[in-house]
């Protein structure tokens, strides 16, 4: 993990938040606007590869622009953004603030993964909602836990199959 900081890289992500853990995936749906949200699923075979383009270091925090990696299919080069109701999703055409801060965790001097914060400093959270909001705009067609900046347990990430890129 330490060798990745301050460099651009791609990785799939494993996520732990509260009682949930699994691979970060792009939600899938045939309905426009219902796919491309970041969810967590125990099936690691669907893990989404993301590209972290290094922007700058501020103290012990590293800022990145995050997009779908070149091999991410439809979401290749789509920017990670926050919806108006706080959910993380991939955006092709909408203008989003794509500046994410990585904060590394350490245990006895060894890096143990990272946390993410959005451009406003809000931590990325993992929350499971069972369509209890009463609105059809919530991107939770699958019932999988979703990444957001509004509600839930702080999400902790570990890179899977990281690759440094130029």
What does this structure look like?
This protein has 166 residues and is mostly beta strands. It has one domain: Trefoil (Trefoil (Acidic Fibroblast Growth Factor, subunit A)). The chain has no helices and 13 strands. The protein has strands at 9-17, 20-26, 38-41, 49-58, 61-68, 79-82, 88-91, 100-107, 110-117, 125-127, 146-148, 153-154, 156-164. Strands 1, 2, 3, 4, 5, 8, 9 and 13 form an eight-stranded antiparallel β-sheet that branches. The chain is globular, with a radius of gyration of 15 Å.
Could you tell me how far the N terminus lies from the C terminus, measured between alpha carbons in angstroms?
Answer: 17 Å
CATH architecture: Trefoil
User: Strand fraction band?
Assistant: over 45%
Number of domains: 1
Low-pLDDT regions:
135-141
Under the CATH scheme, which class? Mainly Beta
Given helix and strand content, the structural type is mainly beta
Quote the CATH topology: Trefoil (Acidic Fibroblast Growth Factor, subunit A)
Query: How confident is the prediction overall: mean pLDDT?
Result: 86
Count of beta strands: 13
Largest sheet: 8 strands, antiparallel
Give the % helix: under 10%
Could you give the order of the helices and strands? EEEEEEEEEEEEE
What value does the Rg take, in angstroms? 15 Å
Total number of helices:
0
Spatial shape: globular
């Amino acid at each position: 993990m330490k060798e990745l900081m301050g460099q651009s890289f791609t990785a799939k992500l494993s996520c732990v938040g509260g009682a949930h853990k699994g691979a970060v995936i792009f939600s899938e749906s045939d309905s426009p606007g219902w796919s491309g949200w970041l969810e967590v699923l125990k099936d690691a075979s669907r893990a989404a590869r993301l590209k972290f383009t290094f922007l700058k270091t501020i103290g012990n925090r590293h800022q990145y622009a995050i997009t779908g990696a070149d091999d991410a299919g439809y979401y290749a080069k789509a920017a990670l953004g926050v919806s108006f109701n706080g959910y993380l999703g991939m955006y092709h055409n909408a203008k989003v603030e794509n500046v994410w801060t990585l904060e590394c965790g350490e245990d006895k001097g060894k890096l143990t993964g990272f946390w993410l914060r959005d451009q406003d400093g809000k931590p990325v959270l993992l929350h499971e909602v069972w369509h209890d909001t009463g609105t059809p705009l919530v991107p939770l067609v699958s019932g999988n836990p979703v990444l957001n900046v509004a509600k839930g347990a702080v999400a902790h990430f570990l890179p899977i199959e990281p690759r440094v890129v130029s």
